[in-house]
């Protein structure tokens, strides 16, 4: 049997409703003696970016017109500087820095007006920099900088505080050889902000690898947003706002006064945004971490403050930054920068409420049997059994309550039978939830059933906020009747659909089906599947 463990979510950056706590590792104040280059009296507004290098286990901090410093991430001790031989003559040659997973360092220069924007590349932490990109911009650019991928898959993103028009641009650059980059496209918005609103003047953070990735953006004085991007049409991609972080620090949100933001995805698939810095005595000295895995229920993981508001130093540029380190022991370290105020490191707390020792899915006659065992259970509420026909989009088909008394026990075994008439390949996973609302996912198990004249249907999301989207897999072409019934039994939607062999999606418009409990029926006259949904 395959061993799997609920780790990163519940143990490292866990929490959907829990206000988890951080442990402060070290704090370096701008008015102290540790970093003379951080002092606002001599370097006002210039220390504006930091990044963690996983290849060397070092923290890099950029003083944008002077130097990039190497910091010990465990102690905060300064250990040296990068080689700057070969840089150009720009005033701010590394306004913001980012590092790939394999240790390649990039720094973007600041183009204060339309013209050329440059990006420099350090192949490693001891090498000299080389100019890797020199591209034309139509407005100020370089305030915001992000990257994803490594080697020839690296994609760079740039934006800035341009106010020459109602729209802003996000420049996307890619590479064929891993060392030189060219402009692939630029992103403009379908609904531009009003005149001079700089939605992306502080942060552009891609969500995944590739030029088609969604992007998280943040502007000083503007809400953080997740935008999706369309296809490249003559060098332009259209951006559409998909998620907006509500202003304020209540209800698990982040104040618009934050300037720095960093996105991270855990191996469990959970997604987080870290915020730090900004020209505000509260947000300017407090790191805040949000769980943004489910855009409908964004919550706060926790916060850690640099100092009290009374000692805050004005940061007229509203800058700051965040970086993450995976400690390898089910915890993360979050590094935070508040320009003109300080740099600090915070370690996430962790616990192991449930340790899953085995999970299997076995094909039986006309059913699938799921078995799992827990080595330990602490504060466990139970397990959602989730199923998918494509291995990506899962929906819950049952909830299995814990067998442990008061949620605490060891060595328990569970069995669940999925008796629905499904064919083809089906995927299963468990979502364990504790009594505080913290949850985690198991690995995925799959079974392959005999292909005959049947088909599989699953909902891509439940509850549903907008259109209902169904994933359908059929081994042969067929015509099916699609019907949606309300809780009272009244048919609110119906249509006939011709299915082709393989996987496809069916969309039911949100308009006309109402809200509340809905039953979606798909039948070809011989086989029938019914899915229960909640429409919000």
Describe this structure in words.
There is one protein chain. The longest helix has 4 residues, at 8-11. The protein has 536 residues and is an all-beta fold. It starts with 7 loop residues before the first helix and ends with a strand. 1% of the residues lie in helices and 49% in strands. The model is unreliable at 1-20 (pLDDT under 50). It folds into three domains: 8-348, Neuraminidase; 353-450, Immunoglobulins (Immunoglobulin-like); 455-536, Macroglobulin (MG2) domain (Immunoglobulin-like), CATH 2.60.40. The strands form nine sheets. It has an eight-stranded mixed sheet, with no helix packed on it. Strands 27, 28, 30, 31 and 32 form a five-stranded antiparallel sheet that branches. Strands 1-24-23-22 form a four-stranded antiparallel sheet, with no helix packed on it.
Condensed summary:
Helices cover 1% and strands 49% of the residues.
Instruction: Please give the count of helices.
Output: 2
Using the coordinates shown, work out and report the CATH topology of the largest domain: Neuraminidase
Average pLDDT for all residues: 84
CATH class of the largest domain: Mainly Beta
The total strand number stands at 39
At CATH's second level, what is the architecture of the largest domain? 6 Propeller
CATH H-level superfamily of the largest domain? TolB, C-terminal domain
């Amino acid at each position: 049997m395959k061993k799997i463990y609920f780790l990163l979510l519940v143990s490292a950056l866990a929490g959907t409703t829990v206000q988890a706590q951080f442990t402060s590792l070290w704090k370096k104040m701008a008015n102290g003696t540790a970093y003379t280059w951080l002092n606002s009296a001599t370097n006002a507004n210039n220390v504006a970016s930091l990044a963690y290098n996983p290849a060397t286990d070092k923290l890099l901090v950029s003083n944008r017109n002077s130097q990039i410093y190497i910091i010990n991430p465990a102690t905060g001790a300064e250990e040296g500087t990068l080689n700057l031989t070969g840089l150009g003559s720009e005033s701010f040659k590394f306004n913001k820095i980012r590092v790939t997973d394999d240790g390649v360092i990039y720094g973007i220069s600041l183009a204060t007006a339309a013209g050329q924007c440059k990006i420099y590349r350090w192949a490693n932490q001891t090498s000299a920099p080389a100019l890797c990109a020199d591209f034309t911009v139509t407005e100020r650019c370089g305030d915001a900088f992000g990257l994803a991928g490594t080697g020839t898959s690296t994609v760079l993103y740039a934006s800035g505080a341009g106010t020459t028009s109602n729209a802003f641009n996000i420049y996307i650059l890619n590479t064929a050889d891993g060392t030189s980059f060219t402009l692939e496209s630029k992103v403009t918005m379908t609904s531009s902000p009003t005149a001079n609103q700089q939605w992306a003047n502080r942060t552009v953070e891609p969500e995944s690898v590739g030029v088609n990735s969604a992007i998280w953006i943040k502007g000083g004085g503007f809400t953080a947003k997740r935008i999706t991007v369309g296809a490249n049409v003559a060098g332009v991609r259209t951006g559409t706002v998909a998620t907006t972080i509500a202003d304020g620090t209540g209800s698990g949100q982040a104040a618009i006064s934050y300037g720095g933001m960093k996105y991270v995805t855990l191996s469990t698939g959970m997604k987080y945004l870290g915020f730090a810095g900004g020209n505000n005595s509260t947000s300017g000295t407090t790191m805040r971490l949000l769980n943004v895995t489910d855009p409908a229920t964004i919550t706060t993981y926790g916060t850690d403050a640099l100092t009290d508001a009374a000692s805050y130093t004005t940061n007229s540029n509203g800058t700051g930054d965040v970086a993450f380190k995976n400690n390898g022991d089910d915890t993360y370290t979050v590094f935070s920068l508040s320009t003109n105020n300080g740099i600090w490191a915070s370690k996430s707390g962790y616990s192991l409420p449930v340790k899953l020792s085995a999970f299997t899915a076995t094909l039986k006659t006309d059913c699938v049997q799921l078995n799992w065992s827990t080595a330990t259970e602490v504060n466990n509420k139970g397990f959602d059994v989730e199923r998918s026909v494509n291995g990506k989009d899962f929906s819950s088909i049952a909830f299995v309550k814990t067998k442990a008394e008061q949620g605490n026990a060891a060595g328990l075994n569970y069995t669940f039978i999925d008796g629905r008439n499904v064919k083809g390949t089906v995927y299963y996973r468990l979502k364990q939830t504790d009594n505080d609302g913290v949850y985690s996912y198991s690995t995925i198990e799959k079974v392959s059933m005999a292909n005959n004249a049947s088909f599989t249907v699953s909902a891509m999301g439940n509850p549903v906020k907008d259109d209902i989207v169904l994933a359908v897999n059929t081994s042969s072409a067929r015509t099916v009747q699609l019907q949606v019934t309300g809780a009272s039994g009244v048919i609110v939607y119906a249509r006939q659909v011709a299915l082709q062999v393989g996987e496809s999606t069916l969309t039911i418009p949100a308009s006309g089906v109402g809200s509340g409990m809905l039953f979606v029926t798909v039948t070809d006259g011989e086989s029938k599947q019914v899915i229960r949904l909640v429409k919000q």
